[in-house]
Amino acid sequence: MREVAQAAGVAMSSVSRVLSDHPDVSPAMRERVFAAVEQLSYKPNLLAQSLRRQETRTVGFVVRDISNPLMAEILKAAETRLREAGYAVMLTNSESRPGLDASHIRLFEQRRVDGLILSLTSETHTETNDLLAQLDVPCVIVDRHVAASLRVSRVLYDHQSGVRAAVRHLLDLGHRRIDLILGAPVRPSRERRAGFEAEFTLRDLPRTYRIVEAGAFAAESADRAVAELLDGEDRPTAIVVGSNQMVPGAVRALSERGIELPRDLSLVGCDDIVLAELYRPPIAVVRCDNAHVGRLTADLLIERMQTAHAPPRDVYVATEFLPRGSCGPPRTVL
């Protein structure tokens, strides 16, 4: 910086103000300093700047499973928003392993990130919850239930409204034997189940459905669950699959059994993916604007990082049902 100041013929304090984008700098001063920076190929020492400012201008993003298209959409939108605000995003992939969630949170704390965004694998993992209770940086959690005592903001999907609309559509078509396949035991699965059951209760219908808890948001889990439902007695006329990552497995199980949509069975997925739109017939889905979720997540974190004493808060995002050709009236005999 001293060499830049000498080349520009200005004080070191002037170079510092220009490089930190201080508003009290004349256009002429800015031009002289940047000309010297370019001439000398000067690169600011970000580590030294971080130590002086007591901030790193970085955000840690812990992702449960980076292969999930939903998370890719959220991450892309959040990274854009954070980059525009002057923050770099550091990403880790937990591979759906709760222990890695905890390790990554600890890693980001050691790297002194200014904030955290978490898409957690588990809501009950003891080590992860202990770390969250001790966090000293702002944190936003994506669609997970955590203890009310934790000072974190949350972006929460209104899964119930979208699933209720899907079940309402199937009931209006004449279906009564509708089954639900759920993934991991976390908030999205619980909320989808609550919305599913509420629509039957509203119409005072008997419990003519089955709910399969597959245990994981994975194609293999859905494949096994659909096989269980179709290979047993009293086969369903419609199935709701509770995750975009599970839909390919459900489709595979249907294809192996020669099930044609919607002639033999109606199918609804949760979260929109390319497969759902391109499949023939296209698969009906409960969906949300995931790019909006990403921007909202980033905005909540920026609010906490840049506004002193800003309290954590929850924000809910609507879901909607998109009917497509995979749904039709049930056949009298399967």
Structural summary, described in words:
The protein has 334 residues and is α/β, with parallel strands linked by helices. It has three domains: 2-44, 434 Repressor (Amino-terminal Domain); 56-158 and 289-318, Rossmann fold (3-Layer(aba) Sandwich), CATH 3.40.50.2300; 159-288, Rossmann fold (3-Layer(aba) Sandwich). 45% of the residues lie in helices and 16% in strands. The strands form two sheets. It has a six-stranded parallel beta sheet with strand order 2-1-3-4-5-11, sandwiched between helices. The chain has a six-stranded mixed beta sheet with strand order 7-6-8-9-10-12, sandwiched between helices. Helix 1 (2-8) packs across helix 3 (27-40), helix 5 (69-84) packs across helix 13 and helix 8 packs across helix 9 (187-202).
Summarize the structure.
The protein has 13 helices and 12 strands. It has helices spanning 2-8, 12-19, 27-40, 46-53, 69-84, 98-110, 126-133, 159-173, 187-202, 219-231, 247-256, 274-278, 290-306; strands at residues 58-63, 88-93, 115-118, 139-142, 153-158, 178-182, 211-213, 238-241, 266-270, 284-287, 314-318, 320-322.
Poorly predicted regions: none
CATH architecture label name of the largest domain = 3-Layer(aba) Sandwich
CATH superfamily of the largest domain: Response regulator
How helical, in percent, are the residues? 40-55%
H/E series: HHHHEHEHEHEEHEHEHEHEHEHEE
Q: And the CATH topology of the largest domain? A: Rossmann fold
Average of the residue pLDDT scores: 92
In percent, how much strand structure appears in the residues? Answer: 15-25%
Number of helices: 13
Anisotropy-based shape? elongated
From the N-terminal CA to the C-terminal CA, the straight-line distance is: 78 Å
Number of strands: 12
Number of domains: 3
Briefly, what CATH class of the largest domain? Answer: Alpha Beta
Main β-sheet, spatial strand arrangement: 2-1-3-4-5-11
